[in-house]
Description:
The complex is a heterodimer. By secondary structure, chain A is of the alpha+beta class. Chain A has helices at 2-15, 89-105, 129-144, 171-176, 203-234; strands at 31-35, 43-49, 52-62, 75-81, 115-124, 152-159, 165-167, 179-186, 192-199. Chain A is built from five helices and nine strands; from the N terminus they run H-E-E-E-E-H-E-H-E-E-H-E-E-H. Helices cover 29% and strands 24% of the residues of chain B. In chain B, helix 12 (396-406) packs antiparallel against helix 23 and helix 18 crosses helix 22 (752-764). Chain B: GO terms for molecular function: 3'-5'-RNA exonuclease activity; endonuclease activity; RNA binding.
Amino acid sequence: xxxxxxxxxxxxxxxGAESSPRGPGCSLRHFACEQxxxxxxxxxxxxLQGDTSVLAGVYGPAxxxxxxxxxNKATLEVILRPKIGLPGVAEKSRERLIRNTCEAVVLGAxxxxxxxxxxxxxxxxxxxxxxxxxxxACMALVDAGVPMRALFCGVTCALDSEGTLVLDPxxxxxxxxxxxxxxxxxxxxxxxxxxxTKGLYSDAELQQCLAAAQAASQHVFRFYRESLQRRYSKS
Amino acid sequence: xxxxxxxxxxxRAGGVMKIVREHYLRDDIxxxxxxxxxxxxxxxxxxxxxxxxxxxxxxxxxxHYLLPDTNVLLHQILRVWRPGTWASxxxxxxxxxxxxxxxxxxxxxxxxxxxxxxxxxxxxxxxEHLKKMSAENHLQVIFITNDKKNKxxxxxxxxxxxxxxxxxxxxxxxxxxxxxxxxxxxxGNEIESGRIIFxxxxxxxxxxxxxxxxxxxxxxxxxSRENYLEATVWVHGxxxxxxxxxxxxxxxxxxxxxxxIVAVELLPKNQWVAPSSVVLHDEGQNExxxxxxxxxxxxxxxxxxxxxxxxxxxxxxxxxxxxxPYCGMLSKSDIKESRRHLFTPAxxxxxxxxxxxxxxxxxxxxxxxxxxxxxxxxxxxxxxxFVKNLGEVGDKETETEVLLLEHDVPHQPFSQAVLSFLPxxxxxxxxKDMKNREDLRxxxxxSVDPPGCTDIDDALHCRELxxxxxxxxxxIADVSHFIRPGNALDQESARRGTTVYLCEKRIDMVxxxxxxxxxxxxxxxxxxxxxxxxxxxxxxxILKVRFTxxxxxxxxxxxxxxxxxxxxxxxxxxDITTSLRGLNKLAKILKKxxxxxxxxxxxxxxxxxxxxSETHDPIDLQTKELRETNSMxxxxxxxxxxxxxxxxHEEFSEHALLRKHxxxxxxxxxxxxxxxxxxxxxxxxxxxxxLADSLDRADSPTxxxxxxxxxxxxxxxxMQAVYFCSGMDNxxxxxxxxxxxxxxxxxxxxxYADIIVHRLLAVAIGADCTYPELTDKHKLADLCKNLNxxxxxxxxxxxxxxxxxxxxxxxxxxxxxxxxxILFVRKNAIVVLIPKxxxxxxxxxxxxxxxxxxxxxxxxxxxxxxxxxVFHIFDKVKVKIMLDSxxxxxxxxxxxxxxxxxxxxxxxxxxxNMDINEPERKKKKREK
Lengths: 235, 928
């Protein structure tokens, strides 16, 4: 898989369409993450993927509204705020995808009748927004110390009209793509937590994308580990 | 897949839904040409003919297929398409080889342009495709379009294209097709010199605004039958202000056609007019006689007193046209070789229509169907086109077809789907049928009907019980057992609403198997029935009533005459006869009681034709005779209907189907009261009872027929009885029968209302299960509306049929003179009734080519003074009846005055063409 990805990366650099630099041996754009940058929430993180950036804050476990109370586990809420304007249908859809992913890993049963709220603020959208939002949410949850079964990350793949696979596409690549597939994967078993797709693709292409995403997730998780290590070793 | 589109949608619950739309193109549609290798397997459905027929077009002499564009197809195909001429219709409906011919909408291109382009691409594809298939055949596809731009573009792209008109004109083999082209070409309509006759119709948006603000009123346009320059508009809206607005004069009618929904503007009060009593028919052959028209309009406006004035208005716009194809005849133009002719519809309320045809000579004297295409502002008449030739005028079948079409009577044979719900033959009563059903086969039941009746829906019995009381049963055919709610048979019957009886034909509401066999209560066979059984004492007082589904076996089917004979003959004493006598005795008591309560005995001249058994031509004509037995059956039917009405209303107060007969407004009686006053009689009209009484008293020893005449006139004053749903109305009273509640239960074979009543009653007594539509009062109200309409139309069709047969009768009889009574006096005519034939007709006093007599019309009495003779209502006159064949438009019975003699008006008695000397003799007698 690595080989494939590398050739992909090469092809893209050759075509010159890529604007943001990508790390060696990794077809993903450059990552950056900063944790605990907000004082009010219980945990916060800002995640950068190329020029895409999402700021996340986590509140909880905290008191829950009676109407939303679940008797045997914590109520998870995800709010995604666009850069400008009010959240629309697209945001609602993403919120739901992120919430489903979080629910799959957060051990909500440890905090029954509480609420855990993840607020995501889009800072800039330059492609693969959902994946970036997932990553930011995960890092913020970690920062807040919410117990989780595993970490998770989001990876977006795009297939262009010739069938070439592009990982972590930019906005331009997304626009030109024939299909866009976003996966959420967990850190323990590398299993799929969530997937959403748009456009046309074959069975084989889906498998190919999934494999590529799994491979790419290793890089993300390695990055998580490194950034956390850096943070905790400092203090 | 062609393309897919994904988008998100918010659901009502606040969730989000992802919707994916995918477009696919079919690759399995063949070109339709048989033997085409390229699309070999892809053929299915209709195919093109291997060798197109009809190459007789002078524009393209080689064999070709036609590819009409959508507009041509929509507007023309029904008119032009005859089997064999347009071979390619099927294939043009679905564009073949869709992968090659798919066309995507371009930016800035509207849907129509895209469709046009798609058709052009298809035409091009076809031509290339056919060339590939068989180069030597030289098959070609010709593109037919009426759109100029489309045609230009097609020719640019190398597709042979013609307009529909060009192509049809080039068809040398079928010249008559050109007439069938809907006349759409604008240039063709510029007949008149552009002189604008009518004011412009306002656009719909303005009309709606006006209606909302109250400046305009919306209503149904109803042209007058008697005067083509007058019409009324029934303003829709709340019942209490159901206003009627009069429109007078061509310009105010402003191109509205009978039944259109129009917007009218009320004129200021000083321009209001009274409904004129002039009879005017549009006879002008030259359409430019506007001056004459104006003069005619002036005739209408005569000085009348203030209170006669009614709201008057003018049409400002048409909200909805209600045009349909009209039956009628062609009035051939006087100009030789002219292709434009006027068409005179059979319905006098429809204006004449101008059509273009080259086959005027073949169409002359035939009944044809014409459709209206439009009515330009500068044209006196609407433009239309020829649709169908029905047949020779005066031909019985043609005329029957015409009157059925004109009265919107559904008369097609029953469809296969409908017939599939009929019970399988041979049919017999099974165990299952007997569930919830009483076995009354042992009772001595018999039916009494007019001779030749095959749809017997009622039978009666009467027997003495052990306690000395009488048991009377009315047994009605159980049609609802066979017609189950909701199926195709039920829907078709509901649509037809009623059986229509014409003079020589019956248009059944239910298929014949049911109407004349399984449901008909014939004698000596087991039949299912719905029985209404009373226990009565000898004073005909009802002690008990019960309803039950039953099985009966009628012992005899009698005619009225036979039953009467049995009752009268002392020799007969069998069960049936005693039963009949018992019934007759009770019926007399019932009738007396009913009349005491104020039921009206009205009269209308009903005639019956004696038909020749072979040619079905009428050979004699007689007014219907009424026997005691007629009223005996009638009495028990009324009783059954009333009992059932009470029962279903008790059970279903909100959705019982009932029949009411509203009391007429007092103004309706004006004419009757005036007429009676002229004979020094007084008619009281405050209640039904006083009306009935005063009618009974109105007798003149010197004039025995007067009473009948008054009753005929009283009938005309009545309102129409209507079906209604009890939940939608609160006035149930039946005025004519003086019953507080009434319904129809006794003729389910020929009336759909009865079937519904049967179902309601069956549910009420627990003999059948209910269904949702039965208890939906809005659905019932809709049904009532249709039934009322169908009943009205059936009545009109019946009258029209009688009128036609009367014509046939007088045709064979020649010219006759008969005594007649004046029924109405009009401004320029009198309406007379000939009692001998029950025939009504109009005698005109103004004729086209004769000097106008001096006419003085007095509205108050009413009377008409011609020269020195005064005509009053009910005056006895003598008229000559003849079939007016001079005017083939509408063959009609023409009546002219013979007596009293008015020089210059009445016809001299001794005209040589009078074949009967009788009137002359009589006249001499009087002169002595």
